[in-house]
């Protein structure tokens, strides 16, 4: 009988393996891009190897399924001794299908974000909502917590009865080993002790979401259009409540609207032209030079005995490329082409996320722990909660950067967030996320025209999706604060809320994207900055600051000496004396030119699309890197900006090799739609000299030197 059960199990798993291969072969939807062709033409052996590796998972499942199904088939066999062999095979196959279906519902209960984005709200999600709400928690506990343990106990008892003395000894040894491994944890409190017996150093926790705008949070005055049901609490109720006791800087800007470059600037307090990473597809030589050139805050705090860690999902994957002094990196890998391919293989074989999203799975297949679709905002939050609990036991001070992908395009939040702020009657193609064609984005040059043609109703839906993403991030933020409070760390932890950049959301003069131009109001360069300081009362500043000022501020607060090469300045003097606050000059540059957005009246330098600008470097972990011949051309084509309280000056290189300047008066034209350079020649000339000095000489000019009569400009 055993071999017949094994045959049924193998038939079931063989079907799923074949289905996985079919999904992998067809998941591109028939689109032929440079990179999809490259995967097949030049990395065929690697793809085959990854599919063979997945067979290990199937083999483990085959053994587990055989052990579980055997007791059931055996019991039915005893009731029907004349059962034909083919029925035993069919029964084993049907039992596997039943188990598989159970685990699918269990996944929808505990990890709904692993299923297709398009499936949110479909009928099978609603099955779990059928029981009355008053008893849903109890039913779920029985189904998903008690039932699996009861079945496992029954299976163990059955096999115990089948085994002889030697078999029972082996089973007992395995059970003891399993229980020991389940409860064993390193004795961190004994391994890591906080030196000294005086006052505890302050912990520092930075929390951010990629593309989170500084003006689109409740405490910044933003309220969504929809205000019924859960939407009535706004987009950020937890953040808003926390910010009431924080030091808030309403006008903070990043020097580049791109994740890798902006985070390097923030953590090392240097402009991109100083640290040397001017676009997101950096080469090994550029990364090595940057690492040798900068002194990141995490390195300084690690030298003082701090535990330093970067935790995040795919938007935090840049830390794999540039750790920036953090000793522990727990993020989703992203920029390696082979990681793309490996993730495609593992997710095509859905048994991997279904059965191996656990500690055993991470040990067997460590790469899945960092796959983008595995590491969701919920997973990041759970990891931070676990880390907080362990850190509280250790007593060691910490500096962590927790970084989410929540607000990044294509704005796909989980239920209920994706529909929370949208028009209930909307049924278009942007229902649960922006209908974003990545192949068109990396291989096309007319994306701006297509985005500009989007009807206002679709733009409104996209803004609602973004608000839902913010609300999901707000829930993650709330849980982290709750974990600090639960473990007694709240009043010894500086908490910083910020972001790498913002995003354009179809405001006047712009469409979608971030950091691609200084058109419009510049929302993609405006980020939140709020700092909770235990023992410090709430403060609020509307003076202009920069993300390069964050590291010096935290260095001041933790007693770290500021390195001389840092270009930002501490904000602690403002906190100690609010009357000392005055605007700081904002200098910025655009990012990698995925799109060369139009500027009225000029023609910009021509650059090819992303898939022609970049190459995959097999000697650099198969990273995407900018081709050597375009390094200078990309930098030379960048827009630059100088901004004061009243004025914004934008410099745009032209195809003729000249520089085109546009000046905007912010109090009367916040959307920056009317160039007033001709009306204010003195302002234009002063700001032009300062901006060109920053571009050519890499020197920042203080606002009081640009406008001696008014330091605020």
From TrEMBL:
It comes from Haloferula chungangensis. Residues 203-560 form the Sulfatase N-terminal domain. Keywords: Membrane, Transmembrane, Transmembrane helix. Belongs to the sulfatase family. It holds the Pfam family Sulfatase. The chain crosses the membrane at residues 47-73, 85-105, 139-160, 167-184. This is Sulfatase. The lineage of its organism: Bacteria, Pseudomonadati, Verrucomicrobiota, Verrucomicrobiia, Verrucomicrobiales. InterPro entries: Alkaline_phosphatase_core_sf, Sulfatase, Sulfatase_N. Gene3D superfamilies: 3.30.1120.10, Alkaline Phosphatase, subunit A (3.40.720.10).
